[in-house]
Description:
By secondary structure, this protein is an alpha+beta fold. It has 14 helices and 20 strands.
Amino acid sequence: MVSSLTFWAVNTIQQDARMNDTRFGRDLSLLLAANVAPLIAEGNRSEIARFSQQFYNSTSSIRYMLYADKEGEIFLGIPFSESEVQNSLTIRRRIQLPEGFGEDPDIPMVRQHQTPNGVVTDVFVPLIDRGEYLGCLAVGIDPNPTVVASSSLTRDVTIAVFVSIWIMVILGAVFNALTITRPIKELLVGVKNIAAGNFKQRVDLPLGGELGELIVSFNEMAERLESYEEQNIEEMTAEKAKLETLVSTIADGAVLLDPDLHVVLVNPTARRMFAWDSLDLSKTSVLNILPAVVQIELAQPLHRIVRGDLQGGEFRTTLTEPVDRTVRILLTRVLDREGSNLKGIAMTVQDITREVELNEAKSQFISNISHELRTPLFNIKSFIETLHEYGSDLSEGERREFLETANHETDRLTRLVNDVLDLSRLESCRIYHFSAVDISQPIEQTLRTYQLNAKDKGIELRQDIEPDLPAVLGHYDLLLQVFANLVGNSLKFTNEGGKVVIRAYVQTVLDRTMWAGEEPTPLDGKVVRIEIGDTGIGIDPEDREAIFDRFFRVENRVHTLEGTGLGLSIVRNIIDKHHTSIHLVSEVGVGTTFWFDLPLHENPSVVSVADSPDEETSEAEEVEAVTIQVQGKDPP
Protein backbone atom coordinates (compact mmCIF):
# COMPACT_ATOMS: atom_id res chain seq x y z
CA MET A 1 0.00 0.00 0.00
CA VAL A 2 2.81 2.40 0.89
CA SER A 3 4.59 1.52 -2.34
CA SER A 4 1.44 2.27 -4.32
CA LEU A 5 0.95 5.63 -2.58
CA THR A 6 4.58 6.58 -3.16
CA PHE A 7 4.36 5.62 -6.82
CA TRP A 8 1.21 7.71 -7.19
CA ALA A 9 2.86 10.68 -5.51
CA VAL A 10 5.97 10.50 -7.74
CA ASN A 11 3.83 10.28 -10.89
CA THR A 12 1.76 13.27 -9.74
CA ILE A 13 4.87 15.35 -9.06
CA GLN A 14 6.41 14.41 -12.41
CA GLN A 15 3.23 15.20 -14.29
CA ASP A 16 2.96 18.57 -12.52
CA ALA A 17 6.57 19.29 -13.52
CA ARG A 18 5.83 18.41 -17.15
CA MET A 19 2.71 20.58 -17.08
CA ASN A 20 4.70 23.50 -15.69
CA ASP A 21 7.42 23.06 -18.32
CA THR A 22 4.79 22.81 -21.06
CA ARG A 23 2.92 25.87 -19.79
CA PHE A 24 6.15 27.87 -19.47
CA GLY A 25 7.38 26.87 -22.97
CA ARG A 26 4.01 27.67 -24.54
CA ASP A 27 3.81 31.13 -22.98
CA LEU A 28 7.42 31.92 -23.81
CA SER A 29 6.99 30.79 -27.43
CA LEU A 30 3.79 32.80 -27.89
CA LEU A 31 5.58 35.89 -26.57
CA LEU A 32 8.52 35.40 -28.94
CA ALA A 33 6.24 34.69 -31.93
CA ALA A 34 4.26 37.88 -31.27
CA ASN A 35 7.49 39.96 -31.41
CA VAL A 36 9.06 38.41 -34.50
CA ALA A 37 5.91 38.00 -36.65
CA PRO A 38 5.97 41.68 -37.89
CA LEU A 39 9.67 41.40 -38.68
CA ILE A 40 9.10 38.23 -40.70
CA ALA A 41 6.27 39.94 -42.57
CA GLU A 42 8.68 42.79 -43.48
CA GLY A 43 11.37 40.26 -44.47
CA ASN A 44 13.89 41.81 -42.09
CA ARG A 45 15.72 38.63 -41.28
CA SER A 46 18.79 40.32 -39.87
CA GLU A 47 16.69 41.98 -37.23
CA ILE A 48 14.97 38.69 -36.58
CA ALA A 49 18.34 37.08 -36.07
CA ARG A 50 19.54 39.83 -33.77
CA PHE A 51 16.40 39.84 -31.67
CA SER A 52 16.28 36.09 -31.47
CA GLN A 53 19.91 35.93 -30.40
CA GLN A 54 19.29 38.43 -27.64
CA PHE A 55 16.18 36.54 -26.56
CA TYR A 56 18.13 33.27 -26.57
CA ASN A 57 20.97 34.73 -24.55
CA SER A 58 18.63 36.27 -22.03
CA THR A 59 16.66 33.11 -21.39
CA SER A 60 18.62 30.14 -20.00
CA SER A 61 15.82 27.66 -20.38
CA ILE A 62 15.72 27.86 -24.22
CA ARG A 63 17.56 24.96 -25.86
CA TYR A 64 17.04 26.07 -29.51
CA MET A 65 14.89 28.25 -31.78
CA LEU A 66 14.05 27.41 -35.42
CA TYR A 67 12.24 29.54 -38.00
CA ALA A 68 10.57 27.93 -41.00
CA ASP A 69 8.68 29.51 -43.90
CA LYS A 70 5.29 28.49 -45.23
CA GLU A 71 6.72 25.44 -46.95
CA GLY A 72 8.41 24.34 -43.74
CA GLU A 73 11.96 25.06 -44.86
CA ILE A 74 14.14 26.30 -42.03
CA PHE A 75 15.74 29.65 -42.76
CA LEU A 76 17.09 30.50 -39.31
CA GLY A 77 18.22 28.45 -36.36
CA ILE A 78 19.67 29.52 -33.02
CA PRO A 79 22.15 28.61 -31.83
CA PHE A 80 24.19 28.40 -35.04
CA SER A 81 27.90 27.78 -35.70
CA GLU A 82 30.15 30.19 -37.59
CA SER A 83 31.60 27.41 -39.70
CA GLU A 84 28.21 26.47 -40.91
CA VAL A 85 27.42 30.10 -41.96
CA GLN A 86 30.65 30.41 -43.90
CA ASN A 87 30.16 27.13 -45.70
CA SER A 88 28.16 27.46 -48.91
CA LEU A 89 27.31 23.76 -48.85
CA THR A 90 24.69 24.01 -46.21
CA ILE A 91 22.14 21.25 -45.78
CA ARG A 92 18.63 22.52 -46.18
CA ARG A 93 16.21 21.19 -43.64
CA ARG A 94 12.49 21.21 -43.36
CA ILE A 95 9.94 20.96 -40.59
CA GLN A 96 7.13 18.57 -41.43
CA LEU A 97 4.02 19.91 -39.68
CA PRO A 98 0.59 18.25 -39.53
CA GLU A 99 -2.22 19.50 -41.71
CA GLY A 100 -4.32 22.28 -40.21
CA PHE A 101 -1.40 23.63 -38.19
CA GLY A 102 -1.61 27.43 -37.82
CA GLU A 103 -5.33 27.77 -38.08
CA ASP A 104 -5.51 28.90 -34.44
CA PRO A 105 -2.48 31.06 -33.48
CA ASP A 106 -3.39 30.87 -29.78
CA ILE A 107 -3.05 27.10 -29.61
CA PRO A 108 0.55 26.03 -30.33
CA MET A 109 1.56 22.39 -30.68
CA VAL A 110 3.55 21.13 -27.73
CA ARG A 111 5.44 17.84 -27.33
CA GLN A 112 8.30 16.41 -25.35
CA HIS A 113 11.10 14.16 -26.45
CA GLN A 114 14.06 12.51 -24.78
CA THR A 115 17.58 13.65 -25.63
CA PRO A 116 20.96 12.62 -24.25
CA ASN A 117 20.92 15.80 -22.18
CA GLY A 118 17.46 15.25 -20.79
CA VAL A 119 13.86 15.80 -21.70
CA VAL A 120 13.19 18.76 -24.06
CA THR A 121 9.78 20.40 -24.50
CA ASP A 122 9.15 21.28 -28.18
CA VAL A 123 6.73 24.13 -28.84
CA PHE A 124 5.60 24.83 -32.43
CA VAL A 125 3.95 28.27 -32.77
CA PRO A 126 2.45 29.49 -36.07
CA LEU A 127 3.72 32.91 -37.23
CA ILE A 128 0.74 34.99 -38.29
CA ASP A 129 0.64 38.66 -39.08
CA ARG A 130 -2.60 40.39 -39.88
CA GLY A 131 -4.26 36.99 -40.40
CA GLU A 132 -1.64 35.75 -42.84
CA TYR A 133 0.27 32.59 -42.09
CA LEU A 134 3.99 33.35 -42.50
CA GLY A 135 5.61 30.16 -41.21
CA CYS A 136 6.42 28.38 -37.96
CA LEU A 137 8.53 29.05 -34.91
CA ALA A 138 9.94 26.00 -33.10
CA VAL A 139 11.32 26.56 -29.61
CA GLY A 140 13.00 23.89 -27.47
CA ILE A 141 12.64 24.48 -23.75
CA ASP A 142 14.87 22.76 -21.21
CA PRO A 143 13.11 21.52 -18.04
CA ASN A 144 13.23 23.62 -14.90
CA PRO A 145 16.43 22.56 -13.11
CA THR A 146 14.85 23.07 -9.72
CA VAL A 147 11.96 20.86 -10.69
CA VAL A 148 14.35 18.30 -12.17
CA ALA A 149 16.40 18.28 -9.01
CA SER A 150 13.22 17.95 -6.94
CA SER A 151 12.00 15.11 -9.13
CA SER A 152 15.35 13.35 -8.87
CA LEU A 153 15.30 13.79 -5.14
CA THR A 154 11.75 12.51 -4.99
CA ARG A 155 12.66 9.54 -7.14
CA ASP A 156 15.65 8.69 -5.01
CA VAL A 157 13.60 9.02 -1.85
CA THR A 158 10.86 6.88 -3.36
CA ILE A 159 13.33 4.17 -4.33
CA ALA A 160 14.89 4.32 -0.89
CA VAL A 161 11.49 4.09 0.76
CA PHE A 162 10.45 1.23 -1.54
CA VAL A 163 13.64 -0.71 -0.86
CA SER A 164 13.36 -0.01 2.85
CA ILE A 165 9.78 -1.20 2.96
CA TRP A 166 10.60 -4.48 1.25
CA ILE A 167 13.66 -4.95 3.42
CA MET A 168 11.36 -4.53 6.40
CA VAL A 169 8.89 -6.97 4.85
CA ILE A 170 11.60 -9.56 4.28
CA LEU A 171 12.99 -9.06 7.76
CA GLY A 172 9.47 -9.32 9.16
CA ALA A 173 8.90 -12.57 7.23
CA VAL A 174 12.16 -14.00 8.54
CA PHE A 175 11.27 -12.92 12.06
CA ASN A 176 7.81 -14.43 11.65
CA ALA A 177 9.31 -17.69 10.45
CA LEU A 178 11.74 -17.76 13.36
CA THR A 179 9.45 -16.63 16.15
CA ILE A 180 5.89 -17.61 15.09
CA THR A 181 5.85 -20.15 12.26
CA ARG A 182 8.25 -22.57 13.88
CA PRO A 183 6.39 -22.67 17.23
CA ILE A 184 3.10 -23.07 15.40
CA LYS A 185 4.54 -25.98 13.42
CA GLU A 186 5.85 -27.51 16.64
CA LEU A 187 2.40 -27.13 18.21
CA LEU A 188 0.76 -28.67 15.14
CA VAL A 189 3.03 -31.72 15.35
CA GLY A 190 2.33 -31.93 19.07
CA VAL A 191 -1.42 -31.81 18.57
CA LYS A 192 -1.21 -34.59 15.96
CA ASN A 193 0.84 -36.74 18.35
CA ILE A 194 -1.63 -36.12 21.17
CA ALA A 195 -4.49 -37.07 18.84
CA ALA A 196 -2.59 -40.27 17.98
CA GLY A 197 -2.36 -41.14 21.69
CA ASN A 198 1.23 -40.06 22.41
CA PHE A 199 0.62 -38.20 25.66
CA LYS A 200 4.38 -37.86 26.30
CA GLN A 201 4.59 -35.13 23.63
CA ARG A 202 6.04 -31.80 24.84
CA VAL A 203 6.92 -28.49 23.09
CA ASP A 204 10.10 -26.90 24.48
CA LEU A 205 10.63 -23.41 22.99
CA PRO A 206 11.88 -20.38 24.98
CA LEU A 207 9.16 -17.93 23.97
CA GLY A 208 7.21 -15.34 25.89
CA GLY A 209 3.98 -13.48 25.37
CA GLU A 210 0.78 -15.08 24.21
CA LEU A 211 2.64 -17.70 22.18
CA GLY A 212 4.66 -18.70 25.21
CA GLU A 213 1.48 -18.99 27.29
CA LEU A 214 -0.01 -21.17 24.58
CA ILE A 215 3.02 -23.50 24.67
CA VAL A 216 2.87 -23.70 28.47
CA SER A 217 -0.85 -24.50 28.35
CA PHE A 218 -0.22 -27.20 25.74
CA ASN A 219 2.44 -28.85 27.89
CA GLU A 220 0.13 -28.75 30.93
CA MET A 221 -2.63 -30.38 28.89
CA ALA A 222 -0.25 -33.13 27.74
CA GLU A 223 0.88 -33.75 31.33
CA ARG A 224 -2.73 -34.05 32.51
CA LEU A 225 -3.60 -36.41 29.68
CA GLU A 226 -0.55 -38.55 30.45
CA SER A 227 -1.50 -38.63 34.13
CA TYR A 228 -5.09 -39.54 33.24
CA GLU A 229 -3.87 -42.29 30.96
CA GLU A 230 -1.61 -43.73 33.64
CA GLN A 231 -4.43 -43.65 36.18
CA ASN A 232 -6.99 -45.29 33.92
CA ILE A 233 -4.95 -47.58 31.72
CA GLU A 234 -4.95 -50.35 34.32
CA GLU A 235 -8.70 -50.06 34.86
CA MET A 236 -9.32 -50.04 31.12
CA THR A 237 -7.00 -53.01 30.64
CA ALA A 238 -8.70 -54.87 33.48
CA GLU A 239 -12.16 -54.19 32.06
CA LYS A 240 -11.03 -55.23 28.61
CA ALA A 241 -9.49 -58.41 30.04
CA LYS A 242 -12.73 -59.14 31.89
CA LEU A 243 -14.78 -58.71 28.74
CA GLU A 244 -12.39 -60.79 26.65
CA THR A 245 -12.32 -63.49 29.33
CA LEU A 246 -16.10 -63.46 29.56
CA VAL A 247 -16.48 -63.73 25.80
CA SER A 248 -13.80 -66.42 25.51
CA THR A 249 -15.17 -68.58 28.33
CA ILE A 250 -18.88 -68.56 27.60
CA ALA A 251 -20.24 -71.83 26.33
CA ASP A 252 -21.90 -70.21 23.34
CA GLY A 253 -20.04 -68.99 20.29
CA ALA A 254 -19.72 -65.20 19.99
CA VAL A 255 -18.84 -63.26 16.84
CA LEU A 256 -18.82 -59.45 16.63
CA LEU A 257 -19.09 -57.84 13.18
CA ASP A 258 -18.65 -54.23 12.08
CA PRO A 259 -21.20 -52.50 9.79
CA ASP A 260 -19.27 -53.83 6.76
CA LEU A 261 -19.75 -57.42 8.04
CA HIS A 262 -16.04 -57.78 8.83
CA VAL A 263 -15.07 -59.92 11.81
CA VAL A 264 -13.98 -57.78 14.77
CA LEU A 265 -14.02 -60.33 17.60
CA VAL A 266 -14.57 -64.08 17.80
CA ASN A 267 -14.28 -66.38 20.81
CA PRO A 268 -12.76 -69.88 20.83
CA THR A 269 -16.16 -71.57 20.92
CA ALA A 270 -17.22 -69.96 17.64
CA ARG A 271 -13.85 -70.81 16.09
CA ARG A 272 -14.33 -74.43 17.08
CA MET A 273 -17.93 -74.59 15.85
CA PHE A 274 -17.13 -73.07 12.43
CA ALA A 275 -13.67 -74.73 12.08
CA TRP A 276 -11.88 -71.34 12.07
CA ASP A 277 -8.97 -72.39 14.28
CA SER A 278 -6.35 -72.00 11.54
CA LEU A 279 -7.80 -68.87 9.90
CA ASP A 280 -6.72 -65.24 10.31
CA LEU A 281 -10.08 -63.48 10.72
CA SER A 282 -8.87 -59.89 11.05
CA LYS A 283 -10.81 -57.64 8.66
CA THR A 284 -12.34 -60.66 6.92
CA SER A 285 -15.91 -60.62 5.64
CA VAL A 286 -17.90 -63.15 7.61
CA LEU A 287 -19.83 -64.19 4.50
CA ASN A 288 -16.60 -65.45 2.94
CA ILE A 289 -15.72 -67.81 5.80
CA LEU A 290 -19.07 -69.10 7.09
CA PRO A 291 -20.02 -72.67 6.14
CA ALA A 292 -22.08 -72.76 2.96
CA VAL A 293 -25.33 -73.77 4.67
CA VAL A 294 -24.96 -70.97 7.26
CA GLN A 295 -23.99 -68.44 4.59
CA ILE A 296 -27.13 -69.20 2.61
CA GLU A 297 -29.22 -68.86 5.76
CA LEU A 298 -27.67 -65.60 7.05
CA ALA A 299 -26.62 -63.62 3.96
CA GLN A 300 -29.93 -61.88 3.39
CA PRO A 301 -30.73 -61.22 7.10
CA LEU A 302 -27.27 -59.72 7.68
CA HIS A 303 -27.65 -57.31 4.76
CA ARG A 304 -31.16 -56.37 5.93
CA ILE A 305 -29.84 -55.61 9.41
CA VAL A 306 -27.11 -53.38 7.93
CA ARG A 307 -29.74 -51.52 5.89
CA GLY A 308 -31.95 -51.14 8.96
CA ASP A 309 -34.80 -53.24 7.57
CA LEU A 310 -34.39 -55.92 10.27
CA GLN A 311 -33.73 -55.56 14.00
CA GLY A 312 -32.37 -59.09 14.53
CA GLY A 313 -33.43 -62.69 14.26
CA GLU A 314 -33.07 -66.30 15.33
CA PHE A 315 -32.06 -69.02 12.90
CA ARG A 316 -31.47 -72.76 13.18
CA THR A 317 -29.25 -74.80 10.95
CA THR A 318 -27.18 -77.98 10.91
CA LEU A 319 -23.39 -78.01 10.67
CA THR A 320 -21.52 -80.97 9.29
CA GLU A 321 -17.96 -79.82 9.92
CA PRO A 322 -16.03 -80.62 12.05
CA VAL A 323 -18.85 -82.76 13.49
CA ASP A 324 -22.58 -82.97 12.91
CA ARG A 325 -24.40 -80.59 15.21
CA THR A 326 -27.49 -78.41 15.30
CA VAL A 327 -26.94 -74.74 16.16
CA ARG A 328 -29.13 -71.77 16.95
CA ILE A 329 -27.78 -68.43 15.66
CA LEU A 330 -29.02 -65.18 17.19
CA LEU A 331 -28.36 -61.89 15.37
CA THR A 332 -28.53 -58.66 17.39
CA ARG A 333 -27.87 -55.06 16.34
CA VAL A 334 -25.20 -53.10 18.25
CA LEU A 335 -26.08 -49.38 18.35
CA ASP A 336 -24.31 -46.29 19.66
CA ARG A 337 -25.28 -44.53 22.89
CA GLU A 338 -28.01 -42.55 21.16
CA GLY A 339 -29.41 -45.75 19.70
CA SER A 340 -29.53 -44.31 16.20
CA ASN A 341 -26.37 -45.43 14.38
CA LEU A 342 -25.40 -49.05 13.74
CA LYS A 343 -21.98 -49.85 15.23
CA GLY A 344 -21.96 -53.57 14.51
CA ILE A 345 -23.79 -56.91 14.68
CA ALA A 346 -23.47 -59.45 17.50
CA MET A 347 -23.80 -63.07 16.41
CA THR A 348 -24.43 -65.64 19.15
CA VAL A 349 -24.06 -69.31 18.19
CA GLN A 350 -25.62 -71.88 20.52
CA ASP A 351 -25.05 -75.62 20.17
CA ILE A 352 -28.51 -77.11 20.66
CA THR A 353 -27.66 -80.59 19.45
CA ARG A 354 -28.25 -82.07 22.90
CA GLU A 355 -31.47 -80.10 23.25
CA VAL A 356 -32.74 -81.39 19.92
CA GLU A 357 -31.76 -84.92 20.81
CA LEU A 358 -33.48 -84.63 24.19
CA ASN A 359 -36.62 -83.26 22.57
CA GLU A 360 -36.63 -86.10 20.10
CA ALA A 361 -35.97 -88.60 22.88
CA LYS A 362 -38.73 -87.06 25.00
CA SER A 363 -41.16 -87.23 22.12
CA GLN A 364 -40.19 -90.80 21.40
CA PHE A 365 -40.39 -91.68 25.10
CA ILE A 366 -43.87 -90.16 25.44
CA SER A 367 -44.98 -91.95 22.30
CA ASN A 368 -43.60 -95.28 23.48
CA ILE A 369 -44.83 -95.03 27.06
CA SER A 370 -48.27 -94.00 25.82
CA HIS A 371 -48.38 -97.04 23.61
CA GLU A 372 -47.07 -99.36 26.32
CA LEU A 373 -49.53 -98.06 28.92
CA ARG A 374 -52.49 -98.11 26.57
CA THR A 375 -52.16 -101.82 25.73
CA PRO A 376 -52.42 -103.29 29.29
CA LEU A 377 -55.00 -100.68 30.31
CA PHE A 378 -57.13 -101.61 27.30
CA ASN A 379 -56.85 -105.31 28.11
CA ILE A 380 -57.71 -104.77 31.80
CA LYS A 381 -60.69 -102.59 30.88
CA SER A 382 -61.91 -105.07 28.27
CA PHE A 383 -61.86 -108.10 30.58
CA ILE A 384 -63.38 -106.21 33.53
CA GLU A 385 -66.17 -104.83 31.35
CA THR A 386 -66.83 -108.33 30.04
CA LEU A 387 -67.02 -109.68 33.59
CA HIS A 388 -69.28 -106.81 34.63
CA GLU A 389 -71.74 -107.20 31.77
CA TYR A 390 -71.67 -110.94 31.12
CA GLY A 391 -70.40 -112.31 34.45
CA SER A 392 -73.59 -114.28 35.12
CA ASP A 393 -73.39 -115.89 31.68
CA LEU A 394 -69.79 -117.03 32.12
CA SER A 395 -68.67 -120.20 33.76
CA GLU A 396 -66.54 -120.23 36.85
CA GLY A 397 -63.47 -121.25 34.82
CA GLU A 398 -63.99 -118.42 32.29
CA ARG A 399 -64.41 -115.85 35.07
CA ARG A 400 -61.24 -117.10 36.74
CA GLU A 401 -59.38 -116.97 33.40
CA PHE A 402 -60.54 -113.38 32.79
CA LEU A 403 -59.47 -112.35 36.29
CA GLU A 404 -56.08 -114.02 35.87
CA THR A 405 -55.58 -112.20 32.55
CA ALA A 406 -56.55 -108.85 34.15
CA ASN A 407 -54.18 -109.57 37.03
CA HIS A 408 -51.43 -110.49 34.58
CA GLU A 409 -51.93 -107.21 32.67
CA THR A 410 -51.96 -105.33 35.99
CA ASP A 411 -48.61 -106.89 36.88
CA ARG A 412 -47.35 -105.94 33.43
CA LEU A 413 -48.53 -102.37 33.94
CA THR A 414 -46.91 -102.27 37.39
CA ARG A 415 -43.60 -103.50 35.99
CA LEU A 416 -43.73 -100.86 33.26
CA VAL A 417 -44.42 -98.06 35.74
CA ASN A 418 -41.70 -99.29 38.08
CA ASP A 419 -39.20 -99.49 35.23
CA VAL A 420 -40.07 -95.98 34.11
CA LEU A 421 -39.67 -94.69 37.66
CA ASP A 422 -36.36 -96.53 38.04
CA LEU A 423 -35.04 -95.12 34.78
CA SER A 424 -36.21 -91.64 35.68
CA ARG A 425 -34.57 -91.90 39.10
CA LEU A 426 -31.30 -93.08 37.56
CA GLU A 427 -31.26 -90.21 35.06
CA SER A 428 -32.11 -87.62 37.69
CA CYS A 429 -29.76 -85.76 40.00
CA ARG A 430 -30.14 -88.18 42.87
CA ILE A 431 -27.10 -88.87 45.03
CA TYR A 432 -25.91 -92.47 45.35
CA HIS A 433 -23.48 -93.55 48.08
CA PHE A 434 -21.01 -96.26 47.17
CA SER A 435 -19.46 -98.56 49.74
CA ALA A 436 -17.87 -101.98 50.01
CA VAL A 437 -20.08 -104.71 48.54
CA ASP A 438 -19.55 -108.45 48.77
CA ILE A 439 -20.58 -109.22 45.21
CA SER A 440 -21.55 -112.81 46.06
CA GLN A 441 -24.49 -111.62 48.19
CA PRO A 442 -26.54 -109.86 45.43
CA ILE A 443 -25.71 -112.77 43.11
CA GLU A 444 -27.04 -115.33 45.58
CA GLN A 445 -30.13 -113.20 46.24
CA THR A 446 -30.82 -113.01 42.52
CA LEU A 447 -30.43 -116.75 42.14
CA ARG A 448 -32.87 -117.39 44.99
CA THR A 449 -35.40 -115.02 43.37
CA TYR A 450 -35.27 -116.64 39.91
CA GLN A 451 -34.58 -120.25 40.94
CA LEU A 452 -38.23 -121.32 40.84
CA ASN A 453 -38.82 -119.52 37.53
CA ALA A 454 -35.79 -121.25 36.00
CA LYS A 455 -36.95 -124.63 37.33
CA ASP A 456 -40.41 -124.16 35.82
CA LYS A 457 -38.90 -123.43 32.41
CA GLY A 458 -36.40 -126.30 32.66
CA ILE A 459 -33.39 -123.99 32.61
CA GLU A 460 -30.27 -124.56 34.68
CA LEU A 461 -29.45 -121.44 36.74
CA ARG A 462 -26.14 -121.46 38.60
CA GLN A 463 -23.25 -119.33 39.77
CA ASP A 464 -19.48 -119.57 39.32
CA ILE A 465 -17.85 -117.26 41.87
CA GLU A 466 -14.11 -117.27 42.58
CA PRO A 467 -13.32 -118.15 46.21
CA ASP A 468 -12.27 -115.36 48.58
CA LEU A 469 -13.46 -112.72 46.12
CA PRO A 470 -12.53 -109.21 47.42
CA ALA A 471 -15.19 -106.60 48.03
CA VAL A 472 -16.01 -104.17 45.23
CA LEU A 473 -16.91 -100.51 45.35
CA GLY A 474 -20.58 -100.14 44.47
CA HIS A 475 -24.22 -99.76 45.48
CA TYR A 476 -25.84 -102.97 46.68
CA ASP A 477 -29.44 -102.26 45.59
CA LEU A 478 -28.43 -100.98 42.17
CA LEU A 479 -26.20 -103.98 41.52
CA LEU A 480 -29.04 -106.25 42.65
CA GLN A 481 -31.29 -104.58 40.07
CA VAL A 482 -28.63 -105.12 37.36
CA PHE A 483 -28.44 -108.84 38.14
CA ALA A 484 -32.24 -109.11 38.26
CA ASN A 485 -32.70 -107.48 34.84
CA LEU A 486 -29.89 -109.41 33.14
CA VAL A 487 -30.88 -112.77 34.63
CA GLY A 488 -34.57 -112.10 33.87
CA ASN A 489 -33.72 -111.37 30.22
CA SER A 490 -31.54 -114.46 29.98
CA LEU A 491 -34.32 -116.68 31.34
CA LYS A 492 -36.86 -115.07 29.01
CA PHE A 493 -34.80 -115.70 25.88
CA THR A 494 -33.40 -119.12 26.79
CA ASN A 495 -35.31 -122.21 25.75
CA GLU A 496 -35.97 -125.27 27.88
CA GLY A 497 -32.83 -127.22 28.64
CA GLY A 498 -30.62 -124.17 28.41
CA LYS A 499 -28.25 -122.68 30.95
CA VAL A 500 -27.84 -119.29 32.62
CA VAL A 501 -24.60 -118.73 34.55
CA ILE A 502 -23.35 -115.83 36.67
CA ARG A 503 -19.57 -115.69 36.94
CA ALA A 504 -17.43 -113.39 39.12
CA TYR A 505 -13.64 -113.44 39.30
CA VAL A 506 -10.66 -111.11 39.74
CA GLN A 507 -9.26 -109.78 36.48
CA THR A 508 -6.07 -107.80 35.88
CA VAL A 509 -6.88 -104.89 33.56
CA LEU A 510 -4.14 -103.13 31.58
CA ASP A 511 -4.37 -100.30 29.06
CA ARG A 512 -8.13 -99.98 29.47
CA THR A 513 -10.28 -97.05 30.33
CA MET A 514 -13.32 -96.85 32.54
CA TRP A 515 -15.50 -93.91 31.86
CA ALA A 516 -16.93 -91.47 34.43
CA GLY A 517 -19.44 -89.47 32.47
CA GLU A 518 -17.34 -88.17 29.58
CA GLU A 519 -13.91 -88.10 31.22
CA PRO A 520 -11.79 -91.26 30.90
CA THR A 521 -10.33 -92.75 34.08
CA PRO A 522 -7.46 -95.22 33.70
CA LEU A 523 -8.06 -98.42 35.56
CA ASP A 524 -4.75 -100.23 35.44
CA GLY A 525 -4.74 -103.01 38.02
CA LYS A 526 -7.17 -105.59 39.44
CA VAL A 527 -10.94 -105.49 39.11
CA VAL A 528 -13.78 -107.91 39.64
CA ARG A 529 -15.27 -109.00 36.35
CA ILE A 530 -18.87 -110.13 36.36
CA GLU A 531 -20.41 -112.12 33.50
CA ILE A 532 -24.03 -113.18 32.94
CA GLY A 533 -24.13 -115.72 30.15
CA ASP A 534 -26.91 -117.83 28.63
CA THR A 535 -27.48 -120.32 25.85
CA GLY A 536 -30.49 -118.40 24.50
CA ILE A 537 -31.49 -117.23 21.04
CA GLY A 538 -28.70 -114.64 20.79
CA ILE A 539 -28.82 -111.11 19.42
CA ASP A 540 -28.48 -110.08 15.80
CA PRO A 541 -25.44 -107.86 15.10
CA GLU A 542 -27.68 -105.01 13.91
CA ASP A 543 -29.52 -105.05 17.26
CA ARG A 544 -26.52 -105.06 19.57
CA GLU A 545 -26.18 -101.26 19.69
CA ALA A 546 -29.90 -100.61 19.95
CA ILE A 547 -30.78 -103.03 22.74
CA PHE A 548 -29.71 -100.49 25.38
CA ASP A 549 -32.12 -97.86 23.99
CA ARG A 550 -35.42 -97.24 25.71
CA PHE A 551 -38.35 -99.42 24.65
CA PHE A 552 -36.24 -101.43 22.21
CA ARG A 553 -37.19 -105.07 22.51
CA VAL A 554 -35.74 -108.06 20.77
CA GLU A 555 -39.21 -109.59 20.98
CA ASN A 556 -40.30 -106.91 18.55
CA ARG A 557 -38.39 -108.93 16.01
CA VAL A 558 -39.15 -112.44 17.20
CA HIS A 559 -42.79 -111.60 18.06
CA THR A 560 -43.01 -114.22 20.75
CA LEU A 561 -42.24 -112.57 24.09
CA GLU A 562 -43.29 -109.41 25.81
CA GLY A 563 -41.46 -106.85 27.92
CA THR A 564 -41.19 -103.15 28.69
CA GLY A 565 -38.02 -102.54 26.67
CA LEU A 566 -36.50 -100.58 29.57
CA GLY A 567 -34.52 -103.26 31.38
CA LEU A 568 -31.21 -102.91 29.54
CA SER A 569 -31.51 -99.15 29.48
CA ILE A 570 -31.77 -99.25 33.27
CA VAL A 571 -28.78 -101.63 33.42
CA ARG A 572 -26.63 -99.29 31.33
CA ASN A 573 -27.53 -96.29 33.51
CA ILE A 574 -26.65 -98.20 36.70
CA ILE A 575 -23.34 -99.36 35.25
CA ASP A 576 -22.61 -95.78 34.18
CA LYS A 577 -23.25 -94.70 37.77
CA HIS A 578 -20.48 -97.14 38.78
CA HIS A 579 -18.13 -95.44 36.30
CA THR A 580 -17.67 -98.46 34.12
CA SER A 581 -19.20 -99.90 30.95
CA ILE A 582 -21.26 -102.90 30.05
CA HIS A 583 -20.28 -105.11 27.13
CA LEU A 584 -21.81 -108.09 25.38
CA VAL A 585 -20.76 -111.01 23.24
CA SER A 586 -23.50 -112.75 21.34
CA GLU A 587 -24.11 -115.22 18.55
CA VAL A 588 -27.50 -116.00 17.14
CA GLY A 589 -28.64 -119.47 18.13
CA VAL A 590 -25.69 -119.94 20.52
CA GLY A 591 -26.23 -117.47 23.34
CA THR A 592 -25.33 -114.11 24.82
CA THR A 593 -22.94 -112.98 27.56
CA PHE A 594 -23.08 -109.56 29.24
CA TRP A 595 -20.03 -108.52 31.28
CA PHE A 596 -18.69 -105.51 33.17
CA ASP A 597 -15.89 -104.70 35.62
CA LEU A 598 -16.12 -103.21 39.11
CA PRO A 599 -13.16 -101.65 41.00
CA LEU A 600 -11.94 -103.25 44.18
CA HIS A 601 -12.80 -101.58 47.45
CA GLU A 602 -9.29 -100.93 48.79
CA ASN A 603 -10.24 -97.88 50.89
CA PRO A 604 -12.70 -98.28 53.76
CA SER A 605 -14.16 -94.83 53.19
CA VAL A 606 -17.58 -94.51 51.64
CA VAL A 607 -18.06 -92.83 48.30
CA SER A 608 -20.91 -90.58 47.16
CA VAL A 609 -21.60 -90.03 43.51
CA ALA A 610 -23.83 -87.03 42.75
CA ASP A 611 -24.90 -85.38 39.55
CA SER A 612 -25.98 -82.22 41.39
CA PRO A 613 -24.67 -80.71 44.65
CA ASP A 614 -28.08 -79.18 45.28
CA GLU A 615 -29.88 -82.51 45.66
CA GLU A 616 -31.28 -82.89 49.15
CA THR A 617 -30.07 -85.92 51.09
CA SER A 618 -30.99 -87.40 54.42
CA GLU A 619 -28.90 -86.69 57.49
CA ALA A 620 -27.58 -90.27 57.54
CA GLU A 621 -26.61 -90.06 53.88
CA GLU A 622 -24.81 -86.77 54.44
CA VAL A 623 -22.80 -88.34 57.24
CA GLU A 624 -21.74 -91.20 54.98
CA ALA A 625 -20.91 -89.03 51.95
CA VAL A 626 -17.17 -88.72 51.49
CA THR A 627 -14.79 -88.35 48.59
CA ILE A 628 -13.55 -91.40 46.72
CA GLN A 629 -9.86 -92.20 46.90
CA VAL A 630 -8.58 -95.41 45.38
CA GLN A 631 -4.87 -96.06 45.95
CA GLY A 632 -4.18 -92.31 46.13
CA LYS A 633 -5.61 -91.63 42.68
CA ASP A 634 -8.10 -88.89 41.82
CA PRO A 635 -11.72 -90.02 41.79
CA PRO A 636 -13.22 -91.00 38.44
